[in-house]
Automatic annotation (TrEMBL):
Domain HTH lacI-type: 5-61
Residues making up the signal peptide according to the UniProt record: none
Domain of life: Bacteria
PROSITE patterns tied to this protein: HTH_LACI_2
Name used for this protein in its record: LacI family transcriptional regulator
Length: 362
């Protein structure tokens, strides 16, 4: 039986005092943000957070009043107002709709919190009447650490933190993008490029890995495939306008070099829509000359011309499954953490077609 990991062991591992470790893990300040991150990472590597009853206040949820002042128990939904993660979003808002619908079915209340500051967030972490927390989108490690420290059950949607153990709910990003890439390869496309920032989120990275895996499978059986830095274009932003100009500038260079891909597989629909517009401004026909795909199936993806081939993410279903997982976690606290994958559906529309016989730019 392994021994319990202690704060002293973490301190020895980092070469700091136990006092520094205690301060960093308490979330009450007294150490720099960089030091806190180092302590959290070391604690995670040593297995401190994974051990039973580690770093949890003595307060037990079973000891809390069963009936809060509002007359029913509620779930805290944390949706930090960053990267357009808001209830008005065509993507995140639909996930929130699913959470709300399932909670209403179960007779639970919902408290939505848009907060990034740990100090401000602590105001909402008085667990009287709060069953647990559902995090939607990217949430900072210090915020998740505070939830873990209190011992509040939590489930994360479309996000995971490698340092903080929790249940998570995703769409099957890797498999869906793998299938979409294989589809385009089957259409004769040999020069393909993934467009998006793989560091933006876990979902983007998994989508890229699915794309790359499909390409690598064809390297031995088809010499025309060449895996190099040319198969990935990193673009950053949150709105169409922020993606469109960088993609356009990149396309101009590739046209001059006669290396413009025949298919662009974009990390989400926002990027895909921007890619189509950028190519059209350059007089490149989609999909006759270049095929373009997105991911998520937001409303704008089928309203544009040509309609965007994409992967439908069952956004409401993600929210509902998160509620189901949270209730199951509350009822079975000692069960292993789970990562649930909800299947996406490939939607083949007008923005993709057979590869052009003549390579663009040649």
């Amino acid at each position: 039986m392994s021994k319990k990991v202690t704060m002293q062991q973490i301190a020895d591992y980092l070469g700091v005092s136990k006092f520094v470790v205690s301060k960093a893990l308490s979330g009450k300040g007294g150490v720099s943000e960089a030091t806190q991150e180092r302590v959290i990472q070391a604690a995670s590597q040593l297995g401190y957070f994974s051990q039973k009853n580690a770093y949890v206040k003595t307060m037990k949820l079973e000891q809390l009043p069963k009936t809060p002042a509002a007359g029913k128990q509620s779930v805290l939904v944390l949706m930090p107002n960053i990267r357009f993660q808001t209830k008005e979003s065509l993507y995140w808002g639909r996930i929130l709709d699913g959470i709300a619908a399932r909670l209403e079915e179960g007779g639970y209340g919902m408290v939505i919190v848009s907060e990034q500051s740990v100090d401000h967030f602590l105001h909402f972490l008085n667990p009287n009447g709060i069953l647990g927390l559902i995090g939607v989108g990217e949430i900072s490690t210090p915020l998740l650490l505070e939830v873990h420290r209190i011992g509040l059950p939590m489930v994360l949607v479309d996000h995971e933190d490698m340092l903080i153990p929790s249940d998570t709910v995703f769409t099957n990003n890797y498999e869906s993008m793998y299938r979409l890439t294989k589809h385009l390869i089957g259409k004769g496309h040999a020069q393909l490029c993934f467009v998006g920032d793989i560091h933006y989120s876990r979902s983007f990275k998994d989508r890229f890995l699915g794309f790359r895996s499909a390409l690598e499978e064809h390297m031995e059986e088809a010499s025309r495939f060449s895996i190099s830095g040319d198969y990935y274009l990193s673009v950053e932003g949150f709105e169409h306008e922020q993606f469109q100009e960088p993609i356009k500038q990149w396309a101009v260079k590739r046209i001059k070099a006669k290396t413009l891909p025949t298919a662009l597989l974009c990390a989400n629909d926002m990027i895909g829509i921007s890619a189509v517009k950028a190519l059209q401004e350059l007089g490149i026909k989609v999909p006759d000359e270049v095929s373009v795909t997105g991911y998520d199936n937001i409303d704008d993806s089928f309203r544009m011309s040509p309609a965007l081939t994409t992967v439908h993410v069952p956004k409401e279903a993600l929210g509902k499954r998160a509620v189901d997982r949270l209730i199951a976690r509350i009822e079975s606290k000692q069960e292993p953490m789970e990562k649930l994958l909800v299947a996406g559906e490939l939607l083949y529309r007008e923005s993709t077609g057979q590869a052009s016989a003549a390579f663009i730019g040649s």
